[in-house]
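Shipment paperwork, digital attachment
Item: protein structure file
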Amino acid sequence: MSDQEGASASEQPALETSFSGRTIKPGDLIAGTIVKITGSVAFVDFGARSQGYIQLAELRGPDGELVVQDGDTVQAEVVSTRSGVELSYRKARDSQVLNALRDAWKNQTPVEGRIVGVNKGGFEVRVDGIRAFCPASHLTGRQLSEPAREVGNTYPFRITEFSETKGLVVSRKDLIEAERRHAREVLTERIQVGERLQGTVTHLKDFGAFVDIGEGVEGMIHVSEISHARVNHPSDALKVGEAVEVEVLRIEPQKGRVALSMKALESNPFRDYVREKKVGDTVTGTVDRLQDFGAFVKLAEGVDGLLHISGIKANERVENPADVLEVGQELELVIEKIDRERERIGLLTPEVAEAKKPVDISVKVGDIVKGPVTRVEKYGVFIEIADRLVGLCPNPEMATDRNADHRRMFPIGTELEVKVVEVDRHKGRVRLSRKALLNADEEKAMADYKRKQKEEVPKALGTFGDLLKDFLNK
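Attachment content:
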């Protein structure tokens, strides 16, 4: 006997007695035995004065085959008694289902429903063949980016509204919250930091991927924890429904949060790369992306280095890296620094690396030096006084009028003679003075004059200024 069949054998005599003793009417439920199947109907003996009949269309399954045979007991509802007793197997079954669903609604007992479609504001659900509606916000407790992916999924629901004519309204909201409360209670008992778990990707956001790790617990993989290789968006590396292996990074029981990582389970390409590298090594890489402050260069799979804008040109100011570099360009570079803790590599072009090498400062304070102007800034003039050794002569030391235009007066390449007034060997800086050199010339002239005066006795004496002027003009 199938589960769709009606009253048990023990109930049959009572039903037969009942219907044999009174007149049946539409809406009555009967239990009877199929005694004959013809081309279009099945005759049912239910203990009344005459037999009833059911249209065979109601007794066929989805494949078109009959689900009953002679001798089977079925429950049916009386549809009409005008020209014989017409019965409905389907209506009886629907009545049973509706009664069960009514009880589930009253008792708030969960029922199982299958999502069959998406409509405005929610989902169309079938619960034991009865049409139901679930609001979008009551299905998963979160906003779904692709609601159509839920079609075909089966979930437990609670019935929030019941109507035999309008259908049902169902919700998973309370069930989900109960699951989450339970998950928070057992979170620290079940999961440990550092543990490896299997999970399934449930949905993707710009900032990461959410993963179901079982027993109502959902964790999140931040986009930066998906892979050592750069991932711009989680959808570039993962898809909903994909099985993944993760490691637990952090647990926040009060918030019900679990931070996960896929990257932690991979070998670290940065550490592998820098194991054989040191500052000053020459490396090759490809420009991966450009920013206002520099260029990120791919040195190996999963390993990027930063070529800062100040490290591109040695003697030329670069306003924007895109002016001199392009994505995909291959470069030969020098490692300036390696930050193993933060996993960062600083890079320089060879010309900048050469310019940054420590310079042997061979001059000392008091030396008179000569060289070409290499740069003129608002605060002073730079002069190359030896190979790769450039000193600064500040504006007040240039021996020019206040607000003088040094760019016009001393174009790049102009040879100037200056005096070394300060040397900072630790910082590699040399301070120069043109004014000190001119003052030194005057001091030397004064000393020479005084010495000459001791050697000669002048025939005629004038003022001291006149005598000095005559001496300087000789």
